[in-house]
Design brief:
Strand content: 5-15%
Number of domains: 3
Distance between the termini: 53 Å
Strand order of the largest sheet: 1-2-3
Shape: elongated
Helix content: 55-70%
Structural class: mainly alpha
Number of helices: 9
Low-confidence stretches: none
Order of helices and strands: HEEEHHHHHHHH
Radius of gyration: 29 Å
Length: 241
């Protein structure tokens, strides 16, 4: 059962006539067989399905992500961090929740790299697709976790949270900064790039005003009045550092 969105049908006449019941035999395997439900008004007599043909048992196996060796190790390491936290909480030691949270995130990023290495060396298309999906899930988990750590776990003075949020943006959304570096290297041809204005806008929103100004100076119309006014406005913007 590789596709969770599909509906699977058991072609069994006895199951169709009597009904079915199921029991989990392992965390990812469901055993299904024919079964006539017994209700409060059911007559106490031998079922009419007794001795009619054989009764088949069907084992339905569902994909279980933690059967992946890499994720098994991942769960082991994160459980070790959780046990450490429980041990500290049960003692009189002061819990450094920020450090614990960072340990969790560090473990996630370590296994993100392992999944990426696995994809690079794999030839099985199904495995590659599974690992790509896992990378996406773990990446967003770490990204949201980091944001929650800043907002709820790491108690800092109100002014400092802006700096931490800016660091979060640069860490998790580095595309604009990388492309800005390429455009600055290209020099005067930078404004011909299709993403030039998108990068300038993103840099300003991220608080990287100096880099945005450097890109604007590379524009072919940088000497115009409009650009000079923009330069003065950007120079007057507050910079958090």
């Amino acid at each position: 059962m590789d596709d969770p969105d599909c509906i699977y049908t058991i072609f069994d006449n006895k199951c169709k006539a009597a009904g079915i019941t199921g029991t989990w035999v392992t965390p990812d395997t469901l055993s299904v067989t024919a079964f006539r439900p017994v209700l409060s008004n059911t007559r106490d007599q031998v079922s009419k399905y007794v001795s009619k043909d054989s009764t088949n048992i069907y084992h339905l196996k569902f994909p279980f992500i933690f059967s992946e060796p890499i994720l098994t190790d991942f769960v082991g390491e994160t459980c070790a961090i959780f046990r450490t936290l429980r041990t500290i909480k049960s003692s009189e030691q002061k819990v450094d929740y920020v450090k614990i949270s960072q340990s969790y995130r560090s473990t996630i990023r370590t296994y993100l790299e392992k999944l990426q290495d696995s994809i690079a060396s794999a030839s099985d298309e199904a495995l590659i697709e599974r690992h790509k999906n896992l990378i996406t899930q773990l990446y967003y988990t770490e990204c949201i976790w980091h944001l929650c750590e800043i907002l709820f776990v790491d108690r800092v003075v109100s002014g400092m949270i802006v700096l931490k949020l800016m660091e979060w943006i640069r860490f998790h959304i580095p595309q604009s900064e990388r492309l800005a570096t390429e455009l600055l290297i290209n020099g005067r041809e930078a404004d011909s790039h299709e993403d030039y204005w998108t990068v300038v806008r993103d840099l300003i929103l991220q608080g990287q005003v100096e880099v945005a100004r450097a890109l604007l100076k590379l524009h072919s119309s940088s000497e115009s009045l409009t650009f000079q006014i923009t330069e003065q406005i950007l120079k007057a913007m507050p910079v958090f550092n």
